Amino acid sequence: MLDVKKVKQRIEELRKLPGIASKPLSEVLEENGFTRRDFLKWAGTMAVALGLPASFAPVIAEAAEVSDRLPVIWLHLAECTGCSESLLRTASPTIDTLIFNYINLEYHDTIMAAAGWQAEENYEEAVKKYKGRYILCVEGAAPTKDNGDFLTIGPEAETGLHKLKRAAKDAAAIIAVGACSSFGGIQAAYPNPTGAVGIYKVLDKMVVNVPGCPPSDRNIVGTIMYVILYGQLPAVDNFNRPKFAYGMRIHDLCERRGHFDAGEFVEEFGSQEAMNGFCLYKMGCKGPYTFNNCSRERFNQHTSWPVQAGHGCIGCSEPDFWDSMAPYEEPLANHKFESVSADATADKVGITILTIAGVAIAAHAAISAIKNPKE
Ligand code: FSX
Ligand code: SF4
Ligand code: F3S
User: Fold this and answer.
1) What is the pTM of this model?
2) Spacing, Cα 220 to ligand 3 middle (Å)
3) Model confidence over 45-71: pLDDT tens digits?
4) Could you tell me the residue ranges of all domains in the chain?
5) Which of 39, 193, 196, 283 has the fewest C-beta atoms under 10 angstroms from its C-beta?
6) Domains 4-246 and 250-368 share a fold
């Protein structure tokens, strides 16, 4: 439980540190059309997302205001950059986006102005200056084949693998942002020619995984906010995902759940059933097997999420989902559950013979039975 006194102390300490922002967050928000009331409302919803009572909103607001004090180094390995892009390229910035911009991103491969040698210099300086104090956020998988030669970065052609290990060594906390850095993602899909892996596999430090392809702005900013508030990493599940965000299944709070329970399914896109908003299970929705909070938090300031937009969940926050959840527009029940993570338990379950209700339970049991990959 959040000890408000301790958090306030921590915020005061952070406030004393030099920030990078040229103006207070309140001004930035105001310039973008957000009132103090909007900000407090945001803080209230963030509190709920983090599993705290809404009365903690003022503390969360204060923590956001000092988020330019905590240095963050943001690396890009093998991926599409969609995780950063999804946060940054919104038509009109959300409060999450503005706070992301406000965070002390000492080094970020994509959005920094510097390039080439200058960028490398900035990176080396940041790692040295903030030794032991920075949060390392990593987007993208680490290709490991041929000593990592499939991914080289910068003028000295340092491998991503090497750069990652160097950055991780002196990081205070490591957050894997996205399915790629968490579990390998698309480049780790069969046959995985570059030997791409989730970064936890090549590091000997705790990594918090924030998967999703991309993860929601809420889960990215929420995890960073958690570290600012508590000064430590959040509690995690078997796959090192923060429980506050990945503790429930998509299916649990889906707005189409009533239709699932009533046996009302879409069987063709564009049909009357689709227009009625019936359940997408038969169109391949993997919501019953996927742990994430999309159905509760949605994306882009709570406006929509995949199922609301009319396509089933493809399970993008689950390990190896490109292989284990495919084909995306067919129910898993029609296939053997073949995960490349050697999910022998799930194979033995023989999902094909189960009923829809049984599938949800069996697949959940199988997924839950997978041990933390590090163990
Ligand atoms: Fe992966 Fe993120 Fe998917 Fe893309 O960086 S999680 S491919 S949205 O960009 O890593
Ligand atoms: Fe929602 Fe998918 Fe579950 Fe249907 S199967 S209720 S669409 S999460
Ligand atoms: Fe991904 Fe499913 Fe959410 S596809 S974005 S976990 S609804």
Assistant:
1) 0.88
2) 14
3) 999 999 998 888 999 999 999 999 989
4) 4-246, 250-368
5) 193
6) no
- Cα 45 to ligand 3 centre (Å): 20
Other beta carbons less than 10 A from residue 80's beta carbon: 17
Pocket of ligand 1 contains residue 140 by CB under 6 Å: yes
State the closest ligand 1 atom to the C-alpha of 82, by its place in the atom list counted from 1: 9
- Atom 3 of ligand 1, nearest CA residue: 213
Q: What is the pLDDT of residues 326-347, one digit of tens each?
A: 999 999 877 654 444 433 333 3
Q: Residue 245: what pLDDT?
A: 97
Going by pLDDT thresholds of 50, 70 and 90, the confidence category of residue 238 is: very high
Class of domain 4-246: alpha beta
| Atom nearest to 279 CA in ligand 2 | 4
For residue 91, the model assigns a pLDDT of 67
Select the CATH number that applies to the domain covering 250-368 from these four: 3.40.50.150, 1.25.40.10, 3.40.50.2300, 4.10.480.10. Answer: 4.10.480.10
